[in-house]
Amino acid sequence: MLSGPPVTTTVDADQLLERFLAANPRQRRSLLSQVLQRSAELRPLIPGQLDRLDATSDDWAAGLLIQLLVADDDSLTQTFRERYSEGWLAVTSASGIDYAPLQRALVDQQFEEADRLTSEHLRQLAGEAAVQRGYVYYSEVPPIASVDLESIDRLWVMYSQGRFGFSVQIRLLRSLNGRWAQLWPRLGWKQGGVWTRYPRSFTWSLEAPEGHLPLVNQLRGVRLMDALLSHPGLQQRVSA
Fold first, then answer.
1. Are 205 and 111 in contact (CB under 8 A)?
2. Which CATH code for domain 100-239?
3. For the chain, domain boundaries
4. Are 164 and 63 in contact (CB under 8 A)?
5. Distance separating alpha carbons of residues 115 and 112, to the nearest angstrom
6. CA triplet 100, 102, 105: central angle to 5 degrees?
7. How far apart are CA 55 and CA 145, in angstroms?
8. Other C-beta atoms within 10 Å of 117: how many?
9. What are phi and psi of 97, to 5 degrees?
10. Where are the alpha helices (DSSP H) in 44-139?
11. Residue burial 199-238, b: 16+ Cβ < 10 Å; e: rest
């Protein structure tokens, strides 16, 4: 019995979007390429979906949709930026820090600028002495309010497809049983954690290894990064 060629069916854009948002992490990864390929069809549907999503979560699916929405300079992008001038993701600060510039940089995938702002915010959170000297001591990390570190981490996770952020680095370190020497190559950092801010030393895109960003100054050893990744606010995010 002869049979014709296999029938291929294309899921409607709204169905694809619904499926993507409802998927578990593994399924979402498998759908990611389809969503990116059909972004032009999906863009008009995104504003309505964002109204239904939780702006207090850290589900990176919303971050991806926002990045697709702002990819073109048209009325959809302008309307979104005007409506969410402070950023779609709701973040707070116990120190009165404005995280809107960081959120804008991450939305636009300007990861080098986002990393610079993150370092600046960490100095602000550590106190005036850290701001004046230009870097943070590990002993200044524990008093930092959890809500601020959570806000910074949520922003990185949200707008990196879940690839970047302090919580991602914590999970990687745990998977290596706390072996710092094995963490550096996994992050794509120089062996031994040697840190430099020369742009060519790092990859400022989603093509970077998981956990590559944000950077943490390791010139004085692992104490600062250890203090950050051991902070209760970040530990709680990974354990939740």
1. yes
2. 1.10.10.1770
3. 13-83, 100-239
4. no
5. 5
6. 110
7. 21
8. 21
9. -80, 135
10. 46-50, 60-69, 75-83, 100-107, 111-126, 128-133
11. eeebebeeebebbbbbbbbbeeebebbbbbbebebbeebb
Tokens for 170, please give them. Answer: 């914590």
Q: What is the DSSP letter of 97?
A: -
**Cα separation, 31 vs 64, whole angstroms:** 12
Tens digits of pLDDT across the chain (240 residues)? 444 454 445 789 999 999 999 999 899 999 999 999 999 999 999 999 999 999 998 889 999 999 999 999 899 999 999 999 999 999 999 999 999 999 999 999 999 999 999 999 999 999 999 999 999 999 999 999 999 999 999 999 999 999 999 999 999 999 999 998 899 889 988 654 445 555 456 889 999 999 999 998 766 678 999 999 999 999 999 986
